Amino acid sequence: MLERFLLLNNNENKTSRGLYMSNAVVKKTLLAMAIAGAATFAQADVVIGVAGPHTGAYAAFGEQLWRGAEKAAMDINAAGGINGEMIKLVKADDACEPKQAVSVANRLVDSDDAVAVVGHFCSSSSLPASRIYEEAGVLMVTPASTAPLLTDNGLPNVFRVCGRDDQQGDVAASYIVGELGATRVAVIHDKDTYGKGLADAMKSTLNAYGVQEVMYEGLTRGEKDFNAVITKIRSVDAEVVYFGGLHSEAGPLVRQLREQGSKAIFMSGDGIVSDEFVSVAGAPEYVDGVLMTFGAPPTSYPSGAKVIQEFRANGYEPEGYTLYSYTAMQVVAAALSNNNLDPMKAAEWLKTNSVSTVMGVKDFDEKGDLKVSDYVMYEWDAQGKYQQIN
Amino acid sequence: MDIVLQQLVNGLTLGSVYGLIAIGYTMVYGIIGMINFAHGDVYMVSAYITAIAIALLTFFGIESFPIILIGTLFLTVAVTGAYGWVIERIAYRPLRNSSRLAVLISAIGMSLILQNYVQLSQGANQQGVPTLLTGAMRIEVGDGFVQITYMKLLILFISLLGMGVLTYVIQKTKLGRMCRATQQDRKMASILGIDTDKVISTVFVIGAMMAALAGVLVTLDYGAFDFYVGFIIGIKAFTAAVLGGIGSLPGAMLGGLILGLSEALFAGLISSDYKDVFSFSLLVLILVFRPSGLLGKPEVEKV
Fold this sequence. Notes:
The complex is a heterodimer.
Chain A lengths: L1 H14 L1 H28 E8 L6 H20 L7 E8 L4 H13 L5 E4 L3 H14 L2 E4 L6 H4 L5 E3 L4 H16 L4 E5 L3 H16 L6 E4 L8 H9 L4 E5 L2 H13 L5 E4 L7 H6 L2 H4 L3 E5 L9 H9 L8 H17 L4 H8 L4 E3 L2 E3 L12 E6 L5 E3 L2
Parallel strand pairs in A: 1-2, 1-3, 3-4, 4-5, 6-7, 6-8, 8-9, 9-10
Antiparallel strand pairs in A: 10-13, 11-12, 13-14
Chain B lengths: L1 H31 L6 H21 L5 H28 L7 H23 L4 E2 L7 E6 L2 E6 H23 L1 H11 L1 H6 L4 H27 L1 E2 L3 H16 L4 H21 L5 H15 L14
Family (chain B): Belongs to the binding-protein-dependent transport system permease family. LivHM subfamily.
Organism (chain B): Marinomonas hwangdonensis
GO cellular component, one term (chain B): plasma membrane
């Protein structure tokens, strides 16, 4: 049966060989044209990847990332681009999953020929992706990944325009000890690079102040029922619940905490800085009084006034990481334009030069961290908004 | 003491939700011997339908909670039931006489289709529904207290009611007799004049409706969901079905309750980091000593 089939196929081939050959010729020509096209294309454009969770449970952050990067690229292009060449953005979706981050990073360097990347968002995605960018000689500026390890790895091409979790944890711990005077602190995290890293950083500073946490536990990302953990928080009589993680878990957690009648103060980091925190929690009343560490209000810099105004004129409030993303794009553009579009030279240049951005002047140290960190404490109110309090 | 009681309450509500979803797995397995991997995603679809139903009802100016609840339950259960029917019709019935493996792959495909379809049509963001029922019952125990929200009580009540009604339907009605006959011997049942294709469709619809019941209750309680929410809860419900003995209806309910309780008690009294490890170790242990689950009947080799 199989033999007959093969035979048949062979015959068919013979009769139509002429056609096949001409087909092959056409294909080759097309391919050559495509290559030529791509080459001219690449010459005219600077390809920059915008990598983050554009889909999935954390897509709200991907939206902030994209809005900021897109606006920055438009503004830079309108002002003549980078050394006369236009920025072309490529959206790379990692869904905040390390595996997918690796594959989109490979795609960015291999088929999109990106010279720089703004992103990724989640630390657990940025970590594996940063190695791929380093091997390919691509500049990486993350607007949001705060895990200390990212820059401690010593890769020459990695920068961030946000703070580090150890700095953030410091601010949280000193607030708990200094302002709240609390001694019974429950530390909860989501077992992820960012969440656990932040919780650990906070815990170690807390311990350095001589306060021992009364509870330290992880919960599972993607679950919605945390009642068992909350009952335990109640049983240890915690005054403060510190959560290292993102809003999709923080929302149900704080809601169920209140539903079980606990009045403990809920505190978290920059992983909950999104309006979605309120909708995931169910109602603004549940987030009332929630404390959160985040960089000094990104909208407070005078240099950003014009951009913010333009965002608002388009009906978009530049919340959370939007302006960080804009800043990251400005850093990339400035570094590339001063170094003739060579990404690795640009990385070297950033370590000794400062860049003025919509969030003020940014200076980087040897590792790629900001020289000055600016974490402050915010509080959510019963209307579902947050204000700086300290 | 109050803490243990509170954990029991947490576990019971969680377990009754697992039980409701597990019914879908166990009934489908019982009747055609396949694992419906798309079942968790049917649950996820029902969460979205719940949100749409609530939005529709409030749009028409209905504000009383009982009417919204009943309306949402009715709409969601009906529409999700229709999903169950359509899924069986297009993904499983054409493969009725092919190997078990083909249907399994088809089910995995269906699960991916549902996830992506919802993601594309509804957006990938976290969705939320407003809190409709607030307030809680507080019982003083010693120097502590047990707090149960009214929503939790409602979950317990409605899911027990749902399970009760289903047990009655399967045990006492003509439809139930047809289901049981088809489960025991499909060929014989069809020779005796039972339209087995119709019975199988009905089982899928019942499974989807039970998942919808869970979907409405959980969505109203937690208020948050996304297109991926069916995965973890689906795995847990499947575990519950296996634990209780897959194919057995009371087994699914019992398995759900045991799983929920063991999770809550382990997380609450020892550590939440390893609660899943504990639940699955429990599953392994039970399967070692009772390979067909707690209430499952060992499969008799037919000669």
